[in-house]
Design a protein that fits this description.
Order of helices and strands: EEEHEEEEEHEHEEHEEHHHH
Shape: globular
Number of strands: 13
Radius of gyration: 22 Å
Number of helices: 8
Structural class: alpha/beta
Largest sheet: 6 strands, mixed
Length: about 350
């Protein structure tokens, strides 16, 4: 089996490598689905390497080194450096950041052309996408349900300067040809969007076959259940790959300073140009932000969104630091008790 078809680049192989390269295609708690040069197989972590803290715990999309076992589970011994990744707050107390998908080229930010469309959510997803290091692409689904979606397109383009925006219908095929640019062999896509947005339908349309079950949505609020039950990488017939994961619903504003810079470049261009270095952007004279809002160069809604996301990110970073300190204190106390 050719691992290059799964996006592996030969020059990514470390000089001091032991074992053979493989890619994580799914995560099942402590067991990992893998693909390597020999076969599709399963693997488990080498405890001495991972639980001692010397290696990043792998996730869907990661390239790893394994000791291949043709008769059972292989041994995962090393996580290779990531080109891009999505992370969230680790649900385990005191452990900080947790990757949920890695090594993808494009982030399909999905909203549907009905009640699901939400500019504030779109701004959040754009921030996360830019932070990941991959290229964001906005995909507005269910175009067959909207008589006139020009307003939606304009709203998306207004908050996503320079980001491609596509309106598509998985049911009728409208606009699907515009996505062919991103589904080239060896490329990996990640889907980011709320339940009921039509992710499973889009996956099936891109795959040319039914590879994901499709659930209906409630007519009153256009919401649906998330059909993905575990983190999974799918190889499509076109030889591109796609990652969907239930963890994407839980992504928070974790360490997104770079993503905010990109997603809110219209705001960032005015920061640092106030008369006073400690300007709070309220009523101070010579405030570049207030002047830009008053002149119409910057929309007040964008400034409010930027402030909200930045405060949320700072709050989560401070809370994570406090949790780490608490975890360390408890660990130290437990150690002292054992010594008594």
């Amino acid at each position: 089996m050719n691992l290059e078809a799964y996006g592996f680049l030969p020059d990514e192989m470390p000089v001091d490598a032991q074992g053979i390269p493989a890619r994580i295609t799914a995560v099942h708690k402590e067991r990992y689905a893998l693909v390597c040069q020999y076969a599709e197989t399963y693997g488990r972590l080498k405890a001495a390497e991972y639980f001692a803290g010397s290696q990043e715990f792998p996730t869907t999309g990661d390239f790893v080194l394994i000791n291949f076992n043709p008769g059972g589970d292989s041994q995962i011994i090393r996580t290779l450096p990531r080109r891009t990744f999505f992370s969230r707050k680790n649900p385990t107390l005191g452990r900080g950041e947790q990757a949920v998908a890695a090594n993808f080229d494009y982030v399909f930010i999905m909203q549907s052309l009905n009640q699901n469309f939400n500019v504030k959510r779109l701004e959040r997803y754009l921030t996360l996408a830019w932070q990941s290091g991959a290229a964001p692409v906005i995909v507005l689904t269910k175009s067959d349900l909207a008589k006139d979606y020009g307003g939606y397109l304009k709203a998306a383009r207004d908050v996503a300067k320079g980001v491609p925006v596509h309106a598509v219908s998985s049911r009728t095929g409208e606009g699907m040809e515009s996505l062919a640019h991103y589904t080239k062999p060896g490329k990996t896509l990640v889907l980011l969007g709320s339940s009921g947005v039509g992710k499973s339908s889009l996956v099936n349309a891109l795959a040319g076959e039914e590879v994901m079950a499709v659930n209906g949505i409630r007519n009153e609020d256009a919401r649906g259940r998330h059909t993905t039950t575990h983190r999974q990488l799918i190889l499509l017939k076109c030889k591109a790959m796609l990652i969907d994961t239930p963890g994407m619903r839980e992504l928070g504003m974790w360490n997104v300073s770079g993503g905010l810079d990109e997603a809110f470049s219209d705001v960032e261009q005015f920061l640092g140009h106030c008369r006073f270095g400690n300007c709070r952007h309220q009523s101070e004279p010579g405030c570049a932000i207030r002047q830009a809002i008053e002149s119409g160069e910057l929309r007040l809604e964008r400034w409010n969104s930027y402030q909200k996301l930045k405060k949320e990110a700072q709050y989560e970073e401070n809370r994570a630091a406090a949790m780490r300190q608490k975890w360390q204190r408890n660990k130290t106390l437990a150690k002292r008790r054992r010594q008594i």
